[in-house]
Structure formats: structure tokens, C-alpha cells
């Protein structure tokens, strides 16, 4: 069956306070991961899964995001004049990567509210939501598998990953039932950041969702939850418990995920990606071994 899904929504209105002062004047989504801004990895992932209509939910001081996916005529002309073809191609690549759209969130009222702001653009069709803090390695399949499951089940699909129970309280956590498909589970309940030691499982939600359009009506009636924000997890809980629009299923991801949500994990993500690069890895790996020896 051909996918009915063509649209991806990427919330990008956060203030990035954990990265201050770097994010005082620059959106956190534009922080470089090796030599590309984090947001470009996410857009590339959406495009690779066939979603070329991309809506960014932005906020104040986020114009750099729009600029990145637009032409940089003077820069391109300068690189062309110098004959720097490699860098020119890298700059031009993001220009036509996807059909980019932008809408502001306004008040920062949580992820659920950010998703709700996409309603006019998405319309009455399933759509994907990708969070920029989670980078999925391009060599590992996740989003396209989720879209396949959505086509098959006509339900909402969320990405799950098994985490250490000691850190489950930092995530939204799912209560699950097995299905007949490998690494696909039915979600019967969800809780957003449960108190430590009370999580119903160690299956944590990571930042990929394929949602039914019914989620908008549910979000409209979802009261603020954790942090006095409208939580997407709470709306998904309502959908799962009441089996609305086919209910909620999870695809369990066992591949490589890079968390850029805090400073330490951001640094780890850069190192992990850089050592795999053909242009950087051969020199970086032996240096890392030498440097790590000095820490013993």
C-alpha cells in the first residue's frame, strides 16, 4: 500500500536554556553536530522516509532556521567563484531538501500545544512528528517502519526504546502488550515522567511519532499536565486507553540513537558520529585512544 503520509511536523520553539549562553542568540536546533546543524539531520530523516512536506513549529529568535533552508546567494556565488565545489554542494543541499513551512507556537505551552499548532497545515490526514533532540542514525530504520505500521494498522504509532529502569523517570513510559509482529507492541497506557521507581515498564518514548489526525481533538480537550504544559503523552494516553482511531502501537527501536538534549549527551553524540565519518574517523579514533590513556 502506498503511504498516505506526506507531512512531517518538527517542533522547534524551545528556548534551549540548557545550552546557554550558546543559545542566547542562536536557536539550539542550529547547534552543529560535527558540521551540520542538528535540525538538518532531522529534516533529512523525514525526507528519507518519503516526507518532503515539512512544517517547523518555531518561536521568537528562530529566523536562523528559515535562513538555513533558504538560498544564501552571496555565499554560493563566493564559493562558486573560488571553485570550492564541495562546500558549494553542501550549502546548496539544504536549499531544496524539502518543501519547508513555518508557523510560530506563540506561548510555550508544551509539546502537545506545539503539535496542535500544526492542525491547519496537516489537515485530516496522518502525519509524523519528529523531535530534534533525538537523532536517529541514518543507517538504522525507524521512521519508515513506523509509517508502514501506520498504513497496516490505521493507528497511531510511537517509537519506544528499552532504557535502564534507573532513568525511566526521565521519559514518557508505556504500558505494553505483545502483538504477533517482532518489535511491535500495543500500548495500553502511558505516563509522562513517572516518579522514580514507579514506572510501569522500561519502554520509554523517544522522539518519533506517526499520529492520527484525531489527536488534534484530543489535544483540544487535554488539560495541562507536567510543568503546567499540554503534554502530548497525556493525549496519547487518552487515545490508548479509549482505543480512539485504532489505538496506539509502539515500534521498539534497537538501533543507534544520539541524544542531543543536554550538554554531555550532545558532546557524546558528536564524538560518536565523528568517529564513523570516513573523512574524520581515521585520524580521530587513534587520537581518542591516546587521549583516553591520559585519563587513567
TrEMBL record:
Keyword Transferase: yes
Broad EC category: transferase
Biological process annotations from GO: UDP-alpha-D-glucose metabolic process
EC number(s) from the headed UniProt entry: 2.7.7.9
Pfam family, one: NTP_transferase
Family stated for the protein in its record: Belongs to the UDPGP type 2 family.
UniProt xrefs under InterPro entries: GalU_uridylyltTrfase_bac/arc (IPR005771), NTP_transferase_dom (IPR005835), Nucleotide-diphossugar_trans (IPR029044)
UniProt keyword Lipid biosynthesis, yes or no: no
UniProt protein name: UTP--glucose-1-phosphate uridylyltransferase
Assigned keywords, A-Z: Nucleotidyltransferase, Transferase
Catalyzed reactions per annotation: alpha-D-glucose 1-phosphate + UTP + H(+) = UDP-alpha-D-glucose + diphosphate
Annotated Nucleotidyl transferase domain residues: 7-273
Amino acid at each position: 500500500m502506498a503511504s498516505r503520509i506526506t507531512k512531517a511536523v518538527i517542533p522547534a520553539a524551545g528556548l534551549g536554556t540548557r545550552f546557554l549562553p550558546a543559545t542566547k542568540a542562536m536557536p539550539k536546533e542550529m547547534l552543529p553536530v560535527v558540521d551540520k546543524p542538528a535540525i538538518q539531520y532531522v529534516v533529512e530523516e523525514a525526507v528519507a522516509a518519503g516526507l518532503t512536506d515539512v512544517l517547523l513549529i518555531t518561536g521568537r529568535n528562530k529566523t536562523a532556521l528559515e535562513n538555513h533552508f533558504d538560498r544564501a546567494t552571496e555565499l554560493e556565488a563566493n564559493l562558486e567563484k573560488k571553485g570550492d565545489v564541495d562546500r558549494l554542494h553542501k550549502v546548496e543541499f539544504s536549499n531544496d531538501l524539502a518543501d519547508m513551512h513555518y508557523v510560530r507556537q506563540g506561548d510555550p505551552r508544551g509539546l502537545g500545544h506545539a503539535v496542535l499548532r500544526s492542525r491547519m497545515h496537516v489537515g485530516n490526514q496522518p502525519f509524523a512528528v519528529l523531535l530534534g533532540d533525538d537523532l536517529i542514525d541514518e543507517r538504522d530504520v525507524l521512521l519508515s517502519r513506523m509509517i508502514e505500521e501506520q498504513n497496516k494498522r490505521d493507528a497511531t504509532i510511537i517509537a519506544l526504546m528499552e532504557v535502564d529502569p534507573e532513568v525511566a523517570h526521565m521519559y514518557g513510559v508505556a504500558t505494553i502488550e505483545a502483538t504477533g509482529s517482532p518489535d511491535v507492541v500495543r500500548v495500553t497506557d502511558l505516563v509522562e515522567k513517572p516518579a522514580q521507581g514507579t514506572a510501569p515498564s522500561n519502554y520509554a518514548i523517544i522522539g518519533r511519532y506517526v499520529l492520527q489526525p484525531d489527536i488534534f481533538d484530543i489535544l483540544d480537550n487535554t488539560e495541562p499536565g507536567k510543568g503546567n504544559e499540554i503534554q502530548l503523552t497525556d493525549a496519547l494516553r487518552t487515545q490508548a486507553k479509549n482505543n480512539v482511531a485504532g489505538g496506539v502501537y509502539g515500534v521498539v527501536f534497537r538501533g543507534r540513537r544520539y541524544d542531543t538534549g543536554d550538554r554531555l549527551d550532545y558532546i557524546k553524540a558528536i564524538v560518536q558520529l565523528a568517529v564513523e565519518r570516513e573523512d574524520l574517523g581515521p585520524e580521530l579514533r587513534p587520537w581518542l585512544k591516546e587521549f583516553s590513556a591520559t585519563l587513567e
